Amino acid sequence: MGRFVARGDLWILGTNRLHEFDGGKHREPGTQSSDLTRDRRLIEADWHRFGFTKAQLLNEGGSIVASTDKLLGRRWDPSRLRRWNALIEDSMFGRPGRTPAIRNWRTAG
Q1: How many Å apart are CA 34 and CA 27, to the nearest integer?
Q2: Closest CA to 19 of 61, 82, 73
Q3: For the whole model, what pTM was predicted?
């Protein structure tokens, strides 16, 4: 029977790879300690964790998508990068995603 190892930000289906956003908080001593323990559990369970910074997610989407294409044995398709960029825009990193969240926070208070 399987056991819970970790929850990731993005699992690439059909692989044992997790992509994760790591903000600066992950370098604080308490968080870093628990992250390292989690990383060891992932290694023991044969999972591969790929951490990314905000700058990498925003500026290096092409290389992230290309790496995933290579892992899955598929050819480069520019539409995947367009979808990546659309997801970023709709997230808290883009104005279209951030604006409604801020509006909700203001009305909730």
Answers
A1: 11
A2: 61
A3: 0.73
